[in-house]
Amino acid sequence: QLQLVESGGGLVQPGGSLRLSCTASGFTLGDYAVGWFRQAPGKEREGVSCISYSGATTKIADSVKGRFTTSRDNAKNTVYLQMNTLKPEDTAVYFCAADQMYCGFRELYDNWGQGTQVTVSS
Questions:
Q1: What distance separates the 2 farthest-apart alpha carbons in the chain?
Q2: E strand or H helix at 68, and its extent?
Q3: Contacts for 65-74 with beta carbons within 8 Å, 24 or more apart?
Q4: pLDDT digit string (tens) for 22-79?
């Protein structure tokens, strides 16, 4: 299976920006759609975005639309989540997930990363 590693999380002030990366090893990530999910303490994991294998199609959750975008650089075997105008309610562990068939907000992906912490606080 794919090994996925998220990076780029950390502490940021409200209104700030972060870019998360999801990098694959063992397989060519360009053959896979990639989703982003997040889980805040005491809450269910929720879908944030997904991007098709080529990057031609993206889906963004209503809760973050207009602030978050996702993109990919298949030559680098990496998918990005650009997070702008961050709010305290964006605080969560962020996960990426890859699947050859599925691009959406349900937890149907076959391969998952370990997560990276994003904390938005003053």
A1: 40
A2: strand 68-73
A3: 70/34, 70/36, 72/29, 72/30, 72/34, 74/28, 74/29, 74/30
A4: 999 989 999 999 999 999 999 999 999 999 999 999 999 999 999 999 999 999 999 9
Helix, strand, coil in percent for the chain, rounding step 5? 5, 50, 45
How far CA 5 is from CA of 2, 25, 27, 67, 121, in Å, comes to: 10, 9, 13, 23, 24
Both tokens of 89, joined, read: 């309610």
Query: In one letter, which amino acid is 107?
Result: E
Rounded Cα–Cα distance for residues 80 and 53 (Å):
13
* Torsion sign, CA atoms 53, 54, 56, 62: positive
Q: Which residues contact 121 (CB under 8 A, 6 or more apart)?
A: 11, 13, 14, 88, 91
Please give the Cα distance from 2 to 44 (Å, whole number).
24
